[in-house]
Amino acid sequence: MDRIRVRGGKDLHGTVPVSGSKNSSLPILAAALLVDGPVLLRNVPDLKDVDTMCRILRHLGMRYYRHDDKSLFLEVEDHTPRNAPYDLVRTMRASFVVLGPLWARRGQARVSYPGGCILGHRPVDLHLKGLAAIGARLVTEDGYVNIGGEVRGGTVYLGGSQGPTVLGTANVVMAATLGKGTTVLECAAMEPEVEDLCNFLNACGARISGVGGHCLVIEGVERLHGCEYTIIPDRIEAATYLVGALMTNSPVTVDGARPQHLIAVLDALREAGAELKIERNRISNVPTADGKVRSVSITTHPYPGFPTDIQAQFMALMARAEGTSVITERVYPERFMHAAELARLGAQIRREGPSAIVHGTPHLSGAPVMASDLRASASLVLAGLVADGHTDVRRVYHIDRGYERIEAKLAHLGADIERISEG
Ligand code: EPU
Q1: Using the 8-state DSSP alphabet, how is residue 83 labeled?
Q2: Pocket of ligand 1 (CB under 6 A)
Q3: Cα(147) to centroid of ligand 1, in Å?
Q4: Is the alpha carbon torsion for 267, 270, 274, 280 positive or negative?
Q5: Kind and range of the H or E element at 66?
Q6: Per-residue pLDDT reduced to its tens digit, 355-372
Q7: Contact (Cβ atoms closer than 8 angstroms) between residue 398 and residue 18
Q8: What angle do CA 38, 42, 45 make, to 5 degrees?
Q9: How far apart are CA 206 and CA 223, in angstroms?
Q10: Mutate which of 261, 300, 331 to test ligand 1's pocket (most atoms within 8 Å of Cβ)?
Q11: What pTM, to 2 d.p., does this model score?
Q12: What separation in Å is there between the alpha carbon of 308 and the centre of ligand 1?
């Protein structure tokens, strides 16, 4: 199992390119199940999660070919497979989004429940509520969801106790694109990744209006055709490098980001003392004379609020800030596994319900730490950049799920970082 070793204290400088969005790619790949004809996706990141989704799609009759220029060709060869088994689905929760497209295009399907997750309880009740509202007949049996019936459209409110659901919205939107009825989806997730999925579907001939808003209207069509489509840049990856730039007070430019997708994060970074220069799709951190970081309290919310996927990295930043900050999770109230690992580096963090209280400290010192999930791993790597000595981040397979060559990108910026393979 590989680990990443970071020796802290190096200044960073230079430009880091942003890869295509993981969380756009995954549902868009699943959406190719709806399409008759070839699909060419550009800017698809080279990530473990993308490989996992491709494996699942192959099982479901898709052929695909990845080109060196980050494009991915997909085409359904066989529309008959309808079964997404536990062994495939349990490796990645996002694979549950094959449910909607399989049902809409193939009439019925059997998809394993995704199972537990380190971020806390992650139910799929809203996915099922939405699909049922537009005509699905659902039966749960042996850990599987069996889906049948006809897509006939309907009106559904998809908000839950933690707000809208990103992949639940994706599942319902995808299913609603085919069929006779019209679907009105209230309290849809507004994340840029959902918008990207809708734009892709419309490029294939779907009729979705209200794209980017909280009410989507989908008029079913008979079939979707293939298209060429470019995935949006990964806002979470971009934000991760900007947090690293501020932590190290370094002149780093993140190239290829969409600043309009990062409003809440840029605002929090500025409040923390960042001087940011924005030129179209390039965001640069300008080092400040004193390099000080101020404490800022944040609360995660669905988009356009502060993203939960940057909470862990922001906590690493706050661990070295001047003063005390309160970090509150409204999306996944249990998503704090990284707090205990950051504490191993000397961070002073106290949990109180859905919040963590972070007392900034001037020094962190390197230690062996364990990555618990993707974003937690990124926060530990960032903390390692400013800790004395070296930090070994174990279980880095988590980071490979969602960050394309993070150690190479950080090394290119001047970080002392290496991957150590342990066979
Ligand atoms: N929820 C329900 N019922 C449901 C679905 C969700 O109660 O049926 C709750 C969840 O438990 C959570 C909240 O609603 O409290 C929001 O969850 P959501 O469904 O929006 O999460 P998701 O769609 O499963 C995606 C991303 C996550 C990201 C969240 C929130 C992908 C592949 N995953 O998950 O990304 O944290 O939205 O923005 O798009 C990551 O990339 O590291 C990651 C975890």
Answers
A1: E
A2: 23, 26, 93-94, 122-127, 160, 162, 165-168, 189, 193, 308-309, 331-332, 374-375, 402
A3: 22
A4: positive
A5: strand 62-66
A6: 999 999 999 999 999 988
A7: no
A8: 120
A9: 8
A10: 331
A11: 0.98
A12: 9
Residue 361 alpha carbon to ligand 1 centre in Å = 32
Average pLDDT for 205-233: 98
What the block records as the tokens of 143 is: 């850990």
**H/E element holding 25?**
helix 22-31
Distance CA 317, CA 270 (A): 13
- The one-letter code for the residue type at 210 is G
Three-state SS for 286? strand
Name the catalytic one among 54, 117, 198, 204.
Answer: 117
Closest CA to 410 of 271, 247, 277, 270: 247
Token pair in block for residue 283: 């965001």
Domains and CATH numbers, the chain: 3-18+233-420 (3.65.10.10), 22-230 (3.65.10.10)
Strands 35-36 and 224-225: parallel
Return the ligand 1 atom nearest residue 307 CA: 38
Kindly indicate the confidence band of residue 397, based on its pLDDT and cuts at 50, 70 and 90. Answer: confident
21 pLDDT more than 80 = yes
User: Which tokens is 190 given?
Assistant: 């507004």
Name which residue sits closest to atom 39 of ligand 1, judged by CA: 23
| Catalytic (active site) residue 198 | no
- For residue 375, which atom of ligand 1 is closest to its CA? 42
Q: For 27-39, write each residue's pLDDT tens digit.
A: 999 999 999 999 9
How do residues 261-302 score in pLDDT, each as one tens digit? 999 999 999 999 999 999 999 999 999 999 999 999 999 999
Average pLDDT, the chain: 96
Pocket test for ligand 1, best of 162, 336, 374, 403 (most atoms within 8 A of CB): 162
Gap between the Cα atoms of 75 and 33, Å rounded = 8
Q: Any idea what DSSP says for residue 322?
A: B
CA distance 279 to 254: 11
Answer yes or no: is pLDDT of 423 > 70.
Answer: no
